[in-house]
Design brief:
Shape: elongated
Structural class: alpha/beta
Number of helices: 12
Distance between the termini: 81 Å
Strand content: 5-15%
Helix content: 40-55%
Length: 362
């Protein structure tokens, strides 16, 4: 009997030790056990879209069983470097990084690679580093094409006589996406500039000249004011290529200050991007002409899918392995499709996607 009791007791102790040694990563579906911590570095809260991005990723990751270390850097590069370095020090399982400057994080990302921490570039390519494993974004060249096409469509519907007077704005020169937007838009506009259908009275079309550092609305407003003073004392501007809704609002503020939108002087056709609520309402009010809708909920879902595939050692799903060379390597990328929206379809597209409610758009 004593031998039997000893055998039973030894078996119970072995089972208990095995249970203590189980990894939390193997917890069954629906378990409240956390799988690990994911570091998410976002650039700023000054843009409505980045707040949505951060919230979407956090919610999706938490629903999948992860803890989330979500940090915003308020457009300050040293702050973001420190935040990413801290995520590495704390051994966050995967890093998701939407960079302020695509090159400035090289040192922190090297530390992540040395620590065996995979890095996903989120909507902004991380450049000049081999530490970035994957990239999730929208088809940025297509975004630019849609902006150019929307500008032309609006000009043709405006009733203004040809040639149309237009001005060109681009995004921040330290954001890799900005060049894709610009090149896509200019693929539509440059042939029409060359043919004389479009006229850039300022002569400013070079990317480095028309770029807007940090995508800043105040910077765009000041440049538009200068363009109006320099080139439009005896003519009206008919259209403005704007790559982002914040820039669009700065441009429109400058135009209104010069008398456009009142006294029978029509506002020009102004494009945009990100479907920020203020700009959506501006479109519905007949001020901004269009924007590009990028469903950041879908982008967050695609990123979380990547994280889960990395964690389970599955093949990570991408659909572009040639377009995004960061200067050191071609980064495997998951591209999502953008949608061009204007007054004719914006309310339906955004409410159908549950991006805004009908009440929010009133």
């Amino acid at each position: 009997m004593r031998k039997l009791l000893a055998i039973i007791l030894a078996g119970i102790m072995a089972l208990a030790m095995a249970a203590c040694g189980r990894s939390t990563d193997s917890a069954p579906a629906g378990s409240t056990t956390t799988k690990g911590t994911i570091g998410v570095a976002m650039p700023t809260k000054t843009s409505e879209r980045w707040i949505k991005d951060g919230d979407n990723i956090k919610n999706a990751l938490e629903a999948a069983g992860y803890k989330v270390n979500l940090q915003y850097a308020n457009d300050d590069i040293p702050t973001q470097v420190t935040q990413v370095s801290d995520m590495v020090t704390k051994k966050n399982q995967v890093l998701v990084v939407a960079a302020i400057d695509g090159v400035a994080l090289k040192g922190a990302l090297k530390d992540a690679k040395d620590a065996g921490i995979p890095v996903i570039a989120y909507d902004r390519l991380l450049r000049e580093t081999d530490a970035v494993a994957y990239y999730t974004t929208f088809d940025n060249y297509k975004v630019g094409v849609q902006q150019g096409e929307s500008l032309v469509k609006g000009l043709e519907a405006s009733g203004a006589p040809k040639p149309y007077n237009v001005e060109v704005f681009a995004g921040s020169p330290d954001d890799n996406n900005a060049t894709f937007f610009y090149k896509g838009a200019m693929s539509v506009l440059q042939p029409k500039i060359d043919s004389g259908e479009l006229k850039v009275r300022s002569g400013e079309t070079d990317f480095n000249t028309v770029a807007t550092l940090r995508w800043d609305a105040a910077t765009a407003k000041k440049r538009m004011e200068n363009l109006l003073t320099k080139s439009y004392t005896s003519a009206d501007v008919n259209g403005v290529l704007s790559p982002y809704d914040g820039i669009s609002r700065g441009v429109i503020a400058a135009l209104k200050g010069a008398g456009y939108g009142s006294g029978g002087k029509k506002l020009p056709v102004v494009t945009g991007q990100d479907a920020e609520l203020e700009s959506v309402k501006s479109i519905l009010a007949g001020e901004q002409y269009s924007t590009i809708f990028k469903d950041t909920g879908k982008l967050a879902d695609a990123t979380v899918t990547m994280i889960q595939q990395i964690a389970s050692s599955q093949t990570v799903t991408t659909n572009d392995t040639s377009s995004y060379n960061n200067g050191v390597k071609v980064v495997p990328t998951m591209l999502l499709d953008p949608v061009s929206v204007d007054k004719s379809n914006i309310q339906q597209v955004l409410t159908d996607a549950k991006y805004y409610t009908a009440d929010q758009l009133k």
